[in-house]
Amino acid sequence: MGNPLLLFYARPAQRRRQSGRRQQVCVPTHAPSTDAIFLALRRMRTPLMVLIGILSVSVFGLSFIPGVDEQGHPYRMSVFDAFYFMSYTAMTIGFGEVPHPFTTAQRMWVTASIYGTVIGWAYAIGALLALTQDQAFQEALAMQRFRRKVNAIRESFYIVVGYGQAGRKVCRELDEAGRRAVVIDTRRERIERVAGDEHYADTPALDADASVPGVLGLAGLGHPRLEGVLALTDDDTVNLAVVIAGDLLRPEVPVIARCSSQMIEERMHDFAPAAVINPSDRFGGYLMLALQRPTTYRLVSWLMASTGSALPAKPEHLQRGRWVVCADGAFGHEVQSDFHAAGMQCDLVGPDVGHPDLHGVAGFIAGTDNDTLNLALAEHARRADADIFVAVRQQTETNETLVKALGVDSVFTPTDLVATEALARVITPTFWSFVEHALVQDDEWSAQLFERMRRSCGNFTPERRLITIRRSEAPALTRWLRTRPLTLGELCTDPADRSQQLDVVVLVLTRDGTPTFVPGPDTELQRGDELLLAGRSTALDDLEQVLAYDSLLDYVATGNEVPTSWFWRLLTRRHLTSRR
């Protein structure tokens, strides 16, 4: 019996339905925080008024006190002269320029004014220093810096909500792929970690609540360069709020959300996100795939791994029979449902019942929320039966070394699964369509493709590239297709020796929006075709050279070695004309 849950992976994306009552509104760009300038003016209002008042009283008092000039005549300073004198005196410059010597009364007034301005400056400077240490002011400054950085982005970017294990891995992979990201997280220590991570491009980050639409607006939800939103927090309610905001404010922007609750997941689907990734549900689906079609599971796991990852080993001791899952919460029920849907027996036990009975079982899954308890349960299962298949659920990456040292057969890390699927959908969406296609194929189809890719790409995860046959990406091929045909087999010929094929496999050919998976070598190319290629990086570089240079394309298509310089091309053209 096939696993019906696998159809979940291949179901088409829901069409975005626009209710007739919806109204188009602008994306808000304000958050529940005070503007830094307004906050500074409000906090410094009293100190500035005190300082201005002291200076005003000192100026007008000095202008009213009579003085005497050098000839003994009465003299009064003008308001401007008094302001000039008190300005350089209050600023502690001490310029010393006075129109006439001061009388005793004037000196007494100036002395009192000096002490008064010192007190005023001390009060103002103290208030300013207190303002710079104020948390609200620091948050306002951080939000304004964040806004400027987001507005300055001139390339495509993604909003990543949540910088935990999954969000951090997604940002790192996006950065390595040359994609920009904007990060939102409620925990300040995670935001501070963004600056410490070695990203090639600057990654704007803000500690704020992403469930507030204004925060998403500040992060660039209304930005014309926004490519998508990834809600990867461990709070399903926040992820649901992000899905709702994305669908209502920017329905054309895809949203990928993480979710662990079936109820919240159904509510998310009402707003037609691009994908909802439930790691608990995915684990059961992948486990059933490994049991029923191990080659397909191995192929998909290999292709979804990071570029350069080693070929995953074929799972040993994996067989049908009775399984035992020791877990609490929704994870255990999800896995048990997957086993029952596949027609297999699965017993669910809680972690508080002691050591479960593992007599005659085919596999055991330690899936509690505590990594230490899972390690203890896995070791007990190994001692009970050395041939039993043991899978461990790993919650945090800090225990990765212990799990690896235990040597279990399978490790389920929810954050890694979420990050892997999100990246597969985001970086190359066409690749995810191939994954969905592969998941519903039989093992014979997977075995043929698996061996073909091993011969071409070796034992490491191949690099993937998406190429569109257009003038900007394939100028030579575009010119060639105007007058002559070309097949996939001819295109993938080695430009150094056309008797050899490049170590490249065409996974998907998309024409007019319709994908063709693993097209044959006799498939003729057309302008506008989109090719998803997998292979060694050197082979992909050689193929891009063929797409760009007419001489190389002519050689792989016809075998003619066309001179590359204009002088030799001119001589060759004259020689061919004379022969005719």
UniProtKB/TrEMBL annotation:
<dbReference type="InterPro" id="IPR036721">
    <property type="entry name" value="RCK_C_sf"/>
</dbReference>
<feature type="domain" description="RCK C-terminal">
    <location>
        <begin position="501"/>
        <end position="549"/>
    </location>
</feature>
<protein>
    <recommendedName>
        <fullName>RCK C-terminal domain-containing protein</fullName>
    </recommendedName>
</protein>
<keyword id="KW-0472">Membrane</keyword>
<dbReference type="InterPro" id="IPR003148">
    <property type="entry name" value="RCK_N"/>
</dbReference>
<feature type="transmembrane region" description="Helical">
    <location>
        <begin position="77"/>
        <end position="96"/>
    </location>
</feature>
<dbReference type="InterPro" id="IPR013099">
    <property type="entry name" value="K_chnl_dom"/>
</dbReference>
<dbReference type="InterPro" id="IPR036291">
    <property type="entry name" value="NAD(P)-bd_dom_sf"/>
</dbReference>
<dbReference type="InterPro" id="IPR050721">
    <property type="entry name" value="Trk_Ktr_HKT_K-transport"/>
</dbReference>
<keyword id="KW-1133">Transmembrane helix</keyword>
<dbReference type="InterPro" id="IPR006037">
    <property type="entry name" value="RCK_C"/>
</dbReference>
<dbReference type="Pfam" id="PF07885">
    <property type="entry name" value="Ion_trans_2"/>
</dbReference>
<dbReference type="Pfam" id="PF02254">
    <property type="entry name" value="TrkA_N"/>
</dbReference>
<keyword id="KW-0812">Transmembrane</keyword>
<feature type="transmembrane region" description="Helical">
    <location>
        <begin position="48"/>
        <end position="65"/>
    </location>
</feature>
<feature type="transmembrane region" description="Helical">
    <location>
        <begin position="108"/>
        <end position="131"/>
    </location>
</feature>
